[in-house]
Amino acid sequence: MWAVLKKELKSYFLSPIGYVVIGIFLLCFSVFFYLTTITSGSVDLGALYYYTALYGLIIIVPILTMRMFAEERKNGTEQLLLTSPISIVKIIIGKLIAALSVIIITLIISFVFYFIVMFFGEPNIGNVLVAMLGFILISMATLSIGMFASSLTENQIIAGIITVAFLIISLFLTDISSIFSGIALINFYTSFAQGVISIENIINLALFSIVFISLTIIVMQRRKLVK
Amino acid sequence: MIEVKNVTKKYGKFVAVDNISFTIQEGEIIGLLGPNGAGKSTTMNMMTGFIEQTEGEIIINGYDIVKKPKKAKKEIGYMPEGVPLYTDLTVKEFVTYMAEIKKVERKTRKEQVEKIIEKTGLKDVEKKLIKNLSRGYKQRVSMAGALVGGPKILILDEPTVGLDPKQITEIRSLIKELGKTHTVILSSHILSEVSQICNKVIIINKGKIVAIDTPENLENKVNNSNTIYLTVEDPENKTEIITSQIQEIKKIELIKENDDGTKQYMIESNGDTDLRKTIFSQFAKENVTIFEMKKLDTTLEDAFMKLIEGGK
Lengths: 227, 312
Known about the structure:
The complex is a heterodimer of chains A (227) and B (312). Chain A has 227 residues and is an all-alpha fold. Helices cover 79% and strands 0% of the residues of chain A. Chain A contains eleven helices and no strands. Chain B has 312 residues and is an alpha/beta fold. In chain B, the strands form three sheets. Chain B has a six-stranded mixed β-sheet, sandwiched between helices. In chain B, strands 2-1-4-5 form a four-stranded antiparallel β-sheet. In chain B, strands 12-13-11-14 form a four-stranded antiparallel β-sheet, covered by helices on one side. In chain B, helix 6 links the parallel strand 7 and strand 8. The interface between A and B is medium-sized, with 26 and 32 residues.
């Protein structure tokens, strides 16, 4: 697993993808820092993380995940990976954590905003950490969806579009219809942004990730039979 | 040892590989031969555990590839068709990554990677990005990836496709070299390659095994007529007279008259008798100079064509 994680993380930063992702993310943070914290004059950073999750993930997640398996399948490197003695589960987890690491790196950089606010008041570090914990969980859930989409096709663009479509539903369409409330990931994040650790939401987000990780595992194993 | 027992692979109704069985002993160099789309790659992909057979079993050194994939896969080094590589890594990074996913112990990893880079002649380019390498080097990198982890069996899918003649000879001698210490299975549709490298050939057509034998035996099998090419300097046209005295000759035909006055004949004889001796002594008696005399060998090519067409 470490081998895959290390290599994937390396290739994020060997190509521009890693930097682009961090760049876009920081841009989102900055814009929402201006729109929420500065305009409202509050020292609460919860809204900052909430809006970045809402608008940032929809761009970032497909960029991080669309190539995961689609590219390997297209280039045939999948054959190298799947004929090595490493298990499919470890490959999948390794890739997922590599993508998550890129987001975690950005979150660490986002401490900058905490330090900026410290000049003007006393922001609650607990709240920020809870918001970050939630951010990691919601990132994990959305990355799992993206990864699943990438395992379905050898076309990165299609993988990306499937991911975006799913994220639009689970992040934005929650108000339109109650049908989508079960997969409305952003609703699970609201409490974290308010600084509340909700066990229920942790379970919901974790469950969401587990379901899509499992689906990816099933797809990859099924492919052995049909390919 | 590899045992392939009654293996079938179906895609829906299409049968890609149809109930094939064979055994490969340790130390053999096997050529998997067949026209495009015969099922060579499918067979190899099943042997390496990349795809799963619909029926039958494949046992690699005692481990079933489906039931004990981890152990079975450790025994195999696989070089897939079209040499897929992680092109944004350097040669050394790639080989190291392969070592990691093949679970080479950390202690010996560095040393082994060095050794393999040396062995495959990649030392000069180890720090280059794979995407900047020529096709020949990429092939070597792929080979290095297969060799890492010390597998006993090497499965090479079309190892010389897309190379120039010099690179082909290099890769072939590398394979021969590796054949001394590994069991090698390679697929190819270049027959001369197989007859040069391999000591056993499996011919596949339309998903079925047509023949398993040594290249020599296969050549002999289809070699049923005895044909001799004869070039003589014969201004007095004695050839026809001489040959009419040899009873075993079935047919003689003048193929061409060369500019230097020599004539080339094709002589077919009955059955197994080799007429070269008789012809030589008879012609010598009559003072006709023989410039060249050679027996026409059936090549693996002929054997192949015959077997493939025989299957239709």
